[in-house]
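subagent[fold] <- orchestrator: predict structure for attached chain, return tokens only, no commentary.
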Amino acid sequence: MSNFLSFESFRKQTGQLVTVYSMEEQLDMELHFHDYTELVFILSGKGIHFTKEDEHDIKAGQVLVIRPKEAHGFKQCNELKLINLIFRQKHLRLSNKDLHYDEVYQHVFDKGNSPVCLSPTKLEWNFLMHKLNEVKLELSMNHLGYQSYLNATLEQLLIILLRSKAGSKQIYSKASKLILIERYIHEHIAMSIRASDITRAFHISNSTLQRLFLKDKGMRFTDYLNRVRVEYAKSLLKDHRFSIAEVGRKCSFLDSNYFSKVFKMYTGFSPTVWRRQLSLQK
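subagent[fold] -> orchestrator:
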């Protein structure tokens, strides 16, 4: 069984929402997990970072990105010196909307991915070290507005990690790409999304898009999209302020007849009958 580390244990010691601490010599460590995000900067030495399913050699100049609840550990550590930056996503107020669909951002903040190992360039690494020092200084001084300053500094740090992804092929996975596409669909459900919109936004071919959904969902992209629309329509039909046509438009069905046809295809009932049954169940 994996050991559990709590963010609150660090917070009680430091009183801060972000913690930076150094490991002068990381020893072998069995599988453990925690309820916070951890960025591990490897200053020197080498070793092996492992999870339940995989393991990777690690060395100086790399950055491990470990999300909450990901069981991981270290072994065969040889003079491994680290700096750990830990925080909880809910304590941050990141402003950059363009980060939300990036794969490294997803690895840091969202579910469904494994820890990754990034290899920044020397210039990127120097910038990361500079930003880490800024974070440590701000935490020690605790001046007015320090939380806003920390957010801005961490945002810059994350952007550099995003830019370093080109040198780390490990982050590109079909599973993570699919998670991003699903999120995109749910966040743009009121728009008329087509397969071409997805392939253009995520730089993949239509055949790749279809394979992703067939393999993971057992259905083609359009089928999945319609199912999401219908599920959203079900929730809207509970609100009698919206007409059937308005519900359809909010789910990107501009033609109310087509909306009724698709809804009945997936539920066996027209939207009108579905709403009537909901009323009878109350």
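orchestrator: received. Logging for downstream: The longest helix spans residues 122-141. The longest strand covers residues 72-87.
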